[in-house]
Amino acid sequence: MDIKLIKESLVTNVYHLDLDKKVPLHKHEKQDEIFYCIKGSGFGVLEDGEIELTVGKEFIVKAGVMHSLRTDGNLYVCSFLIPIVED
């Protein structure tokens, strides 16, 4: 396992969603994604349901799973895309 390559492959973002922001369902084939709510509230959306997000809560999505985010107000999340490590 190449730790340096894994570090270089990590992707981090901070997103602000409001009522007007629509995030379509999508998936990442070779990356897991973790969303961590830092302010506001909303929902992590899956094809078969939703996970409530409030400050300090996380929404974890495995590679290949359709997902999205939505809010009824304002939602601020940190997002981490983590590459799948295959031995």
Short characterization:
With 87 residues, the chain is mostly beta strands. The protein contains one helix and six strands. It has a single domain, classed as Jelly Rolls (Sandwich), CATH 2.60.120.10.
Description of the structure:
With 87 residues, the chain is mainly beta. It has one domain: Jelly Rolls (Sandwich), CATH 2.60.120.10. The chain is built from one helix and six strands, in the order αββββββ. The chain has one helix at residues 3-9, and strands at residues 11-18, 31-46, 49-54, 58-61, 67-70, 74-83. Strands 1, 2, 3, 4, 5 and 6 form a six-stranded antiparallel β-sheet that branches. The protein is globular, with a radius of gyration of 13 Å. The mean pLDDT is 94.
